[in-house]
TrEMBL record, chain A:
<dbReference type="Pfam" id="PF00528">
    <property type="entry name" value="BPD_transp_1"/>
</dbReference>
<feature type="transmembrane region" description="Helical">
    <location>
        <begin position="281"/>
        <end position="300"/>
    </location>
</feature>
<keyword id="KW-0472">Membrane</keyword>
<feature type="compositionally biased region" description="Low complexity">
    <location>
        <begin position="1"/>
        <end position="12"/>
    </location>
</feature>
<keyword id="KW-0812">Transmembrane</keyword>
<keyword id="KW-1003">Cell membrane</keyword>
<keyword id="KW-1133">Transmembrane helix</keyword>
<feature type="region of interest" description="Disordered">
    <location>
        <begin position="1"/>
        <end position="23"/>
    </location>
</feature>
<feature type="transmembrane region" description="Helical">
    <location>
        <begin position="121"/>
        <end position="144"/>
    </location>
</feature>
Automatic annotation (TrEMBL), chain B:
<feature type="transmembrane region" description="Helical">
    <location>
        <begin position="143"/>
        <end position="163"/>
    </location>
</feature>
<keyword id="KW-1003">Cell membrane</keyword>
<dbReference type="InterPro" id="IPR000515">
    <property type="entry name" value="MetI-like"/>
</dbReference>
<feature type="domain" description="ABC transmembrane type-1">
    <location>
        <begin position="106"/>
        <end position="301"/>
    </location>
</feature>
<feature type="transmembrane region" description="Helical">
    <location>
        <begin position="217"/>
        <end position="242"/>
    </location>
</feature>
<feature type="transmembrane region" description="Helical">
    <location>
        <begin position="278"/>
        <end position="301"/>
    </location>
</feature>
<feature type="compositionally biased region" description="Basic residues">
    <location>
        <begin position="27"/>
        <end position="37"/>
    </location>
</feature>
<feature type="transmembrane region" description="Helical">
    <location>
        <begin position="41"/>
        <end position="64"/>
    </location>
</feature>
<feature type="compositionally biased region" description="Low complexity">
    <location>
        <begin position="1"/>
        <end position="17"/>
    </location>
</feature>
Amino acid sequence: MTTLEPAVAADRPPGPRPPAKRNRRSWTGWGFIGPFVAVFALVFLAPIAYSIYLSLFRDQLIGGTQFVGLDNYTQALEDDRFWDSLIRVSLFLVVQVPIMLGIALLIALALDSGRLYGKDFFRITIFLPYAVPAVVATLMWGFMYGTRYGLVGDINDAFGVTLPDPLSADLVLASIGNIVTWEFVGYNMLIFYSALRVIPHSLYEAAEIDGAGQFRVITAIKLPAIRGALVIATIFSIIGSFQLFNEPNILRQLARNAITTDYTPNFYTYSLSFNGQQQNYSAAVAIIMGLITMVIAYIVQLRGMRKGA
Amino acid sequence: MSTPLTAAAKTPTAPAAGSGKGTPRLRTPRKKHTPGRPKRSVLLTVLTGLMLLYTVVPLIWLVISATKTQEGLADSSGLWFADDFALFSNISDTFTYNDGIFTRWLLNTLLYVVLGAGGATFLAILGGYALAKFDFPGKRGVFATVIGAVAVPGTALAVPTFLMFSKMGLTDTPWAVILPSLVSPFGLYLMWVFATEAIPAELLEAARVDGASEARTFFQVALPLLAPGIVTVLLFTTVATWNNYFLPLIMLKDPDWYPLTLGLSAWNSQAETIGGDVIFNLVITGSLLTIVPLIAAFLLLQKYWQSGLAAGSVKE
């Protein structure tokens, strides 16, 4: 929050301002932010409050809806289906996110190095999958994964090999990881690239005078300079992994046995609400996931900002 | 709640992806043989080219497959054309299948984009302008809450929002999709950074001294200066709304209100139901038709959104 100060202070004209005027302006600000805050309260704050309220009740056969305190939470913490799904997305997180961000960073560094032919073409093309809906991306890859009609089938036919089925229970998580990587690698690349672009050129000149090589320039100047962007991208990716839903939900149409309705925590809360009619319990699971996500995002941010600062 | 706040506030550059043409020339001009203008490398280009291949192969597959009939899809190799070229019949079939439901989905998507993304952009402009240029009671609270909300898994909200909306009788109506789309914390953040940079306080003061009302000052002085930022936010909220799947999946039962994403998924799963019509060729052609407008928008508006993002990211 401290960094907010300069921005806020900068647009205030120097010198004291008449108190009456400041007062008038202060409420004018609400005239502009008011509509946003009103809708925000309706679609963000009210649902959060409502879901906390819901999570404290339970629908019982005898006695109808009853206040049960934190029972739903203790039930969730002992729920194997919840833990299995959480472990699954955690595995996804520790494997997919580093691969995706690593590739994005390498491409951003390559673009920024000025050593590429056709740099603009690379940048815009690799970014394009961001504009493809998750539904379409999953449908495309799902078709291509097919061992009979898809590309995997073509490779099998062409080379007379039998590749493992990407939609089998063992491989489907990796296949989902590939789809997510495809969708977001370019987006993260653009975040890193734009952070690299604003590094002052004078730093490179200084490094050259000191005789630093390419590798040294990257580790000593570029990476520290874009640490903020790296942290932000990591946090967004963590949130994305924990929220995983669209890809498994659509891929399930092709891999019904490999992807269960409790495949990810989010899928689980969705199934509880809409197939199981257990809305109260579902709300508790959703809140626990929200808390876990925020705690981990917070830890990443603290560590990321401290490192080498 | 306020978790990523400090991270976000410390690095206004970060989510502001993109750069390029509009960036103030921090690293040019360059002299030859300085580290700023190294020799181009074929090896590095080839390696990056592999990544490019990974990006475009699925898209090429989609374009080629959209030219095939249902039989052609099964018989031919994925990366080359089948004997018959059926793109145009596929396109007309996509639009006419089931009494032209695809057209209806397209119009629904446009409705959600115009009202949802358009509304979200408008609210973000007003809000960002207020945060950047006004001092008002509760400003910090507003900012902290909104930025903190980015960390709340959107999907964790979906179920309670559904239950709340169903009590209010909003589910299965377009409002159930439009209302939640109206809030874009990322858009607000971007407009706040952008308005701070782009609108000189003296200009606003001058307009006020001349006796212009606050509304007139906003529309005639501030709004034109915000144009590149507006295009950027509009593009990103459009992508978010156009590509939305989870929210409409939860909120809508009636296929007449489906957006394209939900409709395509329904067509795809239709093959599984007993006696269901297998129309993968239409799923594929429909997918292609769904992504073409967005890709075209990104390519055509490149200059605007990249300069919008770049201006937001230069904050020394």
